[in-house]
Design a protein that fits this description.
Helix content is about 50%, strand content about 20%. By secondary structure, it is of the alpha/beta class. The strands form 2 sheets. Strands 1-2-3-4-5-8-9-10 form an 8-stranded parallel β-barrel, surrounded by 6 helices. Strands 6-7 form a two-stranded antiparallel sheet. Strand 9, helix 9 (about 260-275) and strand 10 (about 280-285) form a beta-alpha-beta unit. Helix 7 packs across helix 8. The protein starts with a helix and ends with a helix. Residues about 15-35 have low confidence and may be disordered.
């Protein structure tokens, strides 16, 4: 009788321990579920060759989860492999970054060079040294004839994006693109349908990053105000969307956090997080170089 009672007691204690463990694990999962992922653009690719160890350390100290790494033909594939492998050990994904305003319009050579390199690199590299995907920064509106020839440029831009989408899908990799917040006011009407450019880009890529360049979260023309339409569209399409903030020096002060302290930046990011409550994939900070200067 004593043995049965003792056995039941042990089962009871074990059950309590398991329940406590489950509650703790669930709490941790819920906490991580809403945790913001941080990404950044790393433009000066030479640093991974000249100062890789400190670059990896800086990315770790900034709590960065994803790096958009500019492609450079001057950097060896071995260096890329070592850098990606080092960051993967830290739980950081690396995306191959490239693009230019005239890609697919007048400049086909640099686009083709990047795609050929990416294809060969991914084919040769083991999984832990591969890029997570492609990240595009094209910005066709910077072309001189954007205002005069907008319809044709938009059509060529869409044609290019569909080619790149097909390229990424055929290689089982993801495709992300940077978009300005005001693309939700740019209409198109061509063989690709009718609508607004932001929504079309969200539909035809895996992830979009809104360049919501303001240094205040709330109120008219703030980060939240200029991002909401894109966030709504991404939610409808079940696509990832990231909100990007500027920290580099800009001609107009309200665009960047350049002159704002870390407390202000963190506070405004929290306002954005609290408003969207897990509806966005994360926050992107432009750029790694600028953030590194701020931390020195």
């Amino acid at each position: 009788m004593f043995f049965i009672s003792s056995f039941k007691s042990k089962i009871c204690i074990l059950s309590v321990v398991l329940i406590i463990f489950f509650i703790a694990a669930l709490g941790k999962w819920l906490l991580n579920k809403d945790a913001t992922s941080y990404s950044t653009w790393l433009w000066d690719t030479s640093v991974i060759e000249t100062d890789m160890e400190r670059t990896v350390e800086s990315i770790h100290n900034m709590n960065i989860d994803s790096v958009y790494l500019q492609y450079s033909s001057k950097v060896s594939n071995e260096t890329y492999r070592n850098f990606i492998s080092s960051l993967q050990k830290e739980g950081v994904d690396v995306y191959a970054l490239d693009g230019a305003p005239d890609w697919g319009i007048t400049d086909h050579e640099s686009k083709d060079q990047f795609l050929d390199w990416f294809h060969n690199y991914q084919a040769d590299a083991p999984l832990h040294e591969q890029f997570k995907g492609i990240h595009l920064d094209i910005e066709p509106y910077l072309l001189e004839n954007w205002e005069a020839n907008q319809e044709e440029i938009i059509y060529q831009f869409q044609t290019l994006l569909l080619q790149l989408k097909n390229f990424a899908e055929n290689r089982n990799t993801s495709l992300g693109v940077d978009i300005p917040f005001w693309f939700d006011e740019i209409p198109f009407d061509n063989k690709y349908g009718q609508g607004y450019l932001s929504q079309w880009l969200i539909q035809n890529t895996d992830e979009t990053t809104i360049m919501a360049y303001r240094n205040f979260a709330e109120g008219k023309n703030g980060i939240i105000d200029i991002s909401t339409q894109e966030v709504d569209w991404a939610e409808q399409e079940n696509k990832k969307i990231t909100i990007a903030l500027e920290t580099e020096k800009t001609p107009e002060e309200h665009i960047s956090f350049y002159n704002k302290n870390k407390h202000t930046l963190d506070s405004e990011i929290k306002h954005v997080q609290d408003h969207y409550k897990g509806r966005i994939a994360g926050i992107a900070i432009h750029s790694f170089e600028s953030m590194k200067k701020r931390s020195q």
